[in-house]
Amino acid sequence: MCSAFHLHIGGAGVMMGDVLWKLYTKEQGDTIEKNYIFNETENNNYPLSLYADLDDRMINEVKKNKSICYQSNSFVTGKEDAANNYFKAYYNIGKEICEIALNQVRRQVESMDRLDQFIITSALSGGTGSGFTSIMMEQLSVEYDLKVEKNAFFIYPSQRMSNNIVDSYNAVFATHTTLEYCNSVVMFDNQSMYKVIDLQIGLDFVDYTQLNNLVSQIISSYTGLRRFSKINNNKLFSGLCPYPRVHYIIPQYGLLASIDDYINQELNEKSLISFVTKPDQRLLQCEMKPALFCASLIYRSKYTNPFLGQSNLTLQNIRTKHQETPNVFQCQSQNYTVIPELAQLRQTGVFFSNDASVYNYFDNLGKKYDQLYNKRAFVHWFYGEGCEFGEMFQCREDLQALCNDYEEGYHQCGLEEDKDIE
């Protein structure tokens, strides 16, 4: 029996993991493959996970939750954060605890019959989330070979809101690593998640718990294919990535509904598919019209429909370069929630797309990087922590090459004349 191992790195990655494992614990009683994400011993379910951060503030918050049986080797912390500096986490304080983290991973992997994949959560704006995630992915690739997939769920910098002036530096450096060491990267940004939550439920106040819940619901549906339906979920992302470098995925999720109004918001199957595939539900901000290489839908409901999507006009009308219609996967499970204000709906959907319009996001990220680098702003921070001459230039070149790959694909899809989405 195979298992997946979760890595939650940096402050944001740790808090995403906190919400995710609360959700997993609530779902565990109904799962078929109970050892896929848990190690069941002595009537206890121990999460197969590692929380890693260069300071202990966020991890101490996770440890307060006694309802989840974390093992002692599920946590690794340092004594000093990376101060929003990729190279401080990559070359200095992160390198010091990297071997400790790898040992904790080894001890847990030894309890598995077979390691299926690593699932990684992090935010690439900060120093730990970008730098320490990068060094961990590199070392895991050496230790477990490229046969063990690494599928990442990363928060990228928003284009119009930020609390970190060097977030574009950190994100570009980390993207350089994900090109080689990730099999797939599911991309989010906070601004888009705020917008989607507001569109779907219109809460008066949205905090990071709501954002983390949104990411967690998507990861849960992805792993739920294996846990509830015994479907090889590796096929989902491998089917979305037609070329090795082109593995950046944009997710969409629906439906979120308030506990006070869920009866009026519950959608039927046809309406749900139409809703979740709309471009305005994308959880990464792209200003261009979608141009899809490939796409997949996860339909989550306790009741399966063997004919799901076969005659659905919405799916049939979605243009993809490498598919006749998007792939459809069914996760046979009821929907759970860990936020009291949200309702547990009968059915939800996750739409993943390898969308060539993501070149617009990468292009804007590169321009933001250039605005700082052309003036050599804050460059001394990174050189002071071990950045070698030419590294910053090489990372920017790799981002531009990736952007060019996607832009070429966008034009091949025949949408270059379409107007931007308002």
Automatic annotation (TrEMBL):
Pfam families (UniProt xref): Tubulin
GO terms under biological process: microtubule-based process
A GO molecular-function annotation: GTP binding
Domain Tubulin/FtsZ GTPase: 34-230
InterPro entries: Tubulin (IPR000217), Tubulin_CS (IPR017975), Tubulin_FtsZ_GTPase (IPR003008)
Keywords, comma-separated and alphabetical: GTP-binding, Microtubule, Nucleotide-binding
One annotated Gene Ontology cellular component of this protein: microtubule
Similarity section: Belongs to the tubulin family.
Name listed for the protein in its UniProt record: Tubulin/FtsZ GTPase domain-containing protein
Originating species: Paramecium sonneborni
Classification of source organism: Eukaryota, Sar, Alveolata, Ciliophora, Intramacronucleata
